[in-house]
């Protein structure tokens, strides 16, 4: 028989951020029955402040995020600690996820599928401008990678953190197993908060593209529709404009004052970074096929940004 390896020792730091329901009583009961549980009272200044307050009270070298309404696999901590131990370059380890309750809306089903296909460090790096590649409550972080903690810039604090980590040289990857049951609800902050709106997400993308991949580099945009033009508009706020747009629709001539070209006009790989900003389902796969046939390499010659 093979003995199951034990999970690493852990503590549970619960941030009660000025709750007004039965949370305080539930946490008090948990503290009495389990010495690993500690409660930190917050003044109700919002999620970013609560996250940093909790981090300040954590004593371990690995910090695992968890939300109150999700469900976690009992082997999560062990498996993610093992993945982090195997690769010193990993700043955070996530996992595959299963969204609940079912059935899912088409959009959420598409997101779940994409998240569970984005697993390796290379895949997470290449996909980091599409969405946050790790679901926040599925992630276990190295303390060293959390330098500065979470920040509030008016957009998603979790995606912002991951982009800053990659910017500082850390990698992201996932245990290729479902370890989190991720709960969706109409009142979820990511559905209702202005920091998670489409407009905020495009501002976030443009901010990190401008100071990272587009620094001192010319670029084109694949997608002369609403998504591509929206990204271009946000990049203009940073003084950046594409040389041209590329699109499958040969009838388009101009987008935001730049010429619109077709796949047959693609420049040589490496001449400019191609930002692929399209929203239609299946478009990423189609564009990837065209670019790879032209010897473009993802992450080096092109990036998906929507």
So how many helices? 10
Report strand %.
Answer: 15-25%
CATH superfamily membership of the largest domain, which one? Answer: Spore Coat Polysaccharide Biosynthesis Protein SpsA, Chain A
**Helix amount:** 25-40%
Rounded to an integer in angstroms, the radius of gyration calculated over CA atoms is 21 Å
Which segments are poorly predicted (pLDDT under 50) over 5 or more consecutive residues? none
Helix-strand pattern, N to C?
Answer: EHEHEEHEHHEHEHHEHEEEEHE
- The largest sheet has its strands arranged as 10-11-9-8-12-13
| CATH arch. level architecture of the largest domain | Alpha-Beta Complex
Largest sheet: 6 strands, mixed
Termini Cα gap: 48 Å
**CATH T-level fold name of the largest domain:** Spore Coat Polysaccharide Biosynthesis Protein SpsA, Chain A
Please report the first level of CATH classification, the CATH class of the largest domain: Alpha Beta
